[in-house]
Design a protein that fits this description.
Length: about 300
Amino acid sequence: MVFILEDTINGILMGSIYGLTALGLTLIFGVLKVINFAHGSLLMVGMYVAYWAVTLSGAHPYLTLILVIPVMYLFGYYLQDIVIKPIFKAESEVREPITVIIVTTGVWYVLDNLTLLIFGPHYRTIQENPLRGKMLELGGMLISVPKLWGFSAAVLTAAAVYLFLQKTSMGRAIRATSLDREAASLMGIKQFKIYNIAFGIGTATAGIAAVTLVPFYNVFPTVGVLFDIKGFIIVVLGGLGSIGGAILGGMIIGVIESVGPQFMAATWAEGIVYGLFLLFLFVKPSGLFGVRYDW
């Protein structure tokens, strides 16, 4: 029983990090109304930025947030401004331009292969890592300290994004644009600037997730693919555009992956995750917290 409880807690902690990786994905969808297939690659870029920041400076992994957040925000801001905005302008009459999906898929392949070309296929880990293998003993259970910090980062980031959207003038402008971009434009809101900012924030949250992963996860060019797939499953479970749903959906996946192998083969546990994904698509495609209106 203790082992099941231990696996459940560690599953929730890891699942919250999954939810954090999906948070930016659901935020971008909520505003731009498009699925960003390059989101996993943006997470991978954030992991490389954090890895090299720690390797070159010797700083504590979590201190790299000071660098990673602004770098990833600007990267996302200008990626939207330079690559995606022209498509929105060319297809201004389309609410959800399918071409953007094709372009973000192209960005995914470009980023992954460019990283492979520059850094090679090697798996990298932080050598001087004060958090490696660190565990917290609690009532006979061993709780991963890096994952515990990741859980804290996920909850705080989700709360910060929610409060930003609800309480600030820029957040209200983002929500107004997500509801009706034409009406928002008539009110003086600059639609494409809002898109740039929303994409930048979504990318910055992926950077935060990257920093929480680097202390205990390998860094390699295709690492984003693993989290990209889970990200799409999570936003379907939690509801596209739902901030709380992203975190809860991630926790559900984490618990299944952690507890499932206690009773069955790990491959069957993965099968349950995908089966749950298909079940929600058929029965409740809006997800747990999906609503008729965005935000």
